[in-house]
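Please fill in the sequence for the structure shown.

STRUCTURE ENCODING:
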């Protein structure tokens, strides 16, 4: 008896990378059965019912024999419904209803019961993997067409149903391409803050020191903590930060899009994400939601904020163990999720901005208000922010309530004539360019003063010995740690860049010190 086998290639996900998977189908004599082997999750096990219905409802015969399908390599755990389409195709090839193509191609997509091909998460990662392995053509669902075309211009076939794909394989006629309307103005997700809801920097009044601190944080990619009374503008100020940052370059946009695609947060017909993410999780967030998790790990909030901003409002209300999870990613700019037989690494290079009241009543910084909290209550209020995490905050900004004469202006809707957000954004972009040129001169690859490692920090930041000694004396007076001293130097370098100075001066160091006085 002739061997009845069919093979198709597909792609699994390993973090934001793809892994080529060989889909094989074998038809053998015996009682009718349909088995899938190769460490698949529940979605893959349920594919048997979807594949059966899709083949029958597309007008083809489902073989009445013993069907064994394999997803190789078998030692890699696989998940998701993206293997539905190649499984159906491998069965049709094995049964002789579809001719085995001359060359192996790559296909993925979820099947509806009527044979419709639906979009799947991680399409951009799968397509990039196929291109790297020179696997073309690549068959993708219509719903993921825009996402796929962001990395692949040629060799891409988009299909809307199983019959369209089979017609293409039999006749060579390309299916009709879907019309694509892309929109990258927002980031889907329950914890996202829509750009349209963010205020403008020009509408923020009476918080000049805090505005300056946010500019420094943006210019050097520094972490910042805003401490102040309720209603003084902490959340509004944090929300404008993403609009001051330069747009994503192509490589950054690709990384961000891959993370959102793997997470299933891409909208239909959405291409590369061009705006920097802004994530604002609620203080009740769990550990796995913050750093990522699951039997097949998916990205958490710190990865969804990659190349953007992670805003923790009411930071003292977060659980201590959740906040402490940020310590390692803040240093390494990535997070490693370990499972029993599998490890996944996701990038997590973000600017952390926290906002909190200095005490339970919120009046600790108010000169004309009486703080009702005891010293012990104040310590308990702030203890959720551990010392090591606080040490990783480059800037701590104290904010107080606005004066009475400023309040009417705040609700008038008139922008502050002294602040032009576009000019501030251009100044920050120019500052990034200066830092990028310096990094190239010193052989570094991580843009941003806040991203520089402690080794040879003075050389990388181009700070002379005199300023190093001056900063060391200030750090010693405030009992700063080595990490605190290093962050003081990074902030001073950023202030000098903002002022257009090539050398770090004494006034730059003293200004940087003002942002570490209270809680260092």
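FILLED IN BY: designer on duty
SEQUENCE:
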């Amino acid at each position: 008896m002739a061997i009845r086998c069919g093979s198709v290639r597909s792609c699994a996900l390993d973090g934001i990378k793809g892994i080529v998977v060989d889909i094989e189908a074998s038809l053998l004599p015996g009682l009718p059965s349909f088995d899938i082997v190769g460490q698949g999750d529940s979605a893959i096990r349920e594919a048997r019912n979807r594949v059966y219905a899709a083949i029958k409802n597309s007008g083809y015969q489902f073989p009445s024999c013993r069907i064994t399908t394999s997803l190789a390599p078998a030692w890699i755990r696989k998940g998701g419904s993206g293997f539905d389409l190649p499984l159906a195709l491998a069965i049709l090839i094995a049964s002789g209803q579809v001719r085995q193509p001359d060359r192996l191609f790559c296909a993925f997509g979820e099947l509806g019961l009527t044979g419709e091909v639906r979009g799947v998460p991680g399409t951009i990662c799968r397509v990039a993997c196929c291109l790297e392995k020179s696997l073309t053509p690549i068959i993708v669902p219509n719903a993921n067409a825009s996402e796929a075309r962001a990395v692949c211009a040629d060799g891409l076939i988009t299909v809307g149903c199983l019959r369209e794909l089979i017609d293409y394989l039999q006749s060579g006629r390309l299916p009709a391409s879907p019309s694509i309307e892309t929109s990258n103005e927002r980031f889907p997700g329950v914890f996202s803050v829509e750009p349209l809801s963010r205020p403008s920097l020009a509408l923020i009044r009476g918080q000049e020191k805090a505005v300056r601190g946010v500019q420094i944080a943006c210019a050097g990619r520094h972490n910042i903590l805003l401490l102040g009374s309720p209603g003084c503008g902490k959340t509004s100020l944090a929300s404008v930060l993403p609009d001051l940052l330069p747009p994503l370059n192509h490589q950054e946009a690709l990384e961000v899009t891959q993370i959102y695609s793997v997470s299933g947060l891409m909208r239909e017909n959405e291409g590369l994400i061009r705006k920097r993410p802004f994530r604002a999780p609620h203080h009740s967030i769990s550990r796995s939601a913050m750093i990522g998790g699951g039997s097949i790990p998916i990205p958490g909030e710190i990865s969804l904020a990659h190349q953007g901003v992670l805003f923790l409002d009411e930071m003292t209300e977060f659980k201590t163990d959740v906040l402490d999870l940020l310590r390692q990613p803040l240093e390494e700019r990535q997070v490693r999720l370990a499972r029993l037989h599998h490890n996944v690494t996701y990038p997590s290079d973000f600017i952390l901005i926290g906002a909190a009241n200095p005490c339970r009543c919120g009046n600790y910084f108010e000169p004309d208000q009486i703080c009702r909290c005891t010293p012990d209550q104040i310590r308990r209020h702030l203890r959720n922010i551990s010392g090591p995490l606080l040490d990783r905050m480059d800037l701590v900004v104290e904010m107080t309530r606005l004066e009475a004469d400023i309040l009417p202006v705040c609700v008038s809707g008139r922008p502050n004539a002294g602040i032009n957000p576009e000019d501030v954004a251009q100044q920050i972009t120019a500052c990034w360019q200066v830092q990028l040129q310096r990094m190239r001169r010193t052989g570094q690859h991580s843009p941003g003063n806040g991203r520089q490692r402690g080794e040879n920090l003075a050389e990388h930041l181009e700070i002379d010995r005199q300023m190093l000694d001056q900063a060391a004396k200030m750090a010693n007076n405030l009992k700063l740690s080595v990490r605190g001293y290093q962050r003081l130097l990074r902030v001073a370098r950023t202030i000098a860049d903002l002022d257009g100075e090539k050398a770090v001066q004494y006034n730059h160091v003293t200004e940087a010190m003002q942002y570490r006085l209270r809680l260092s």
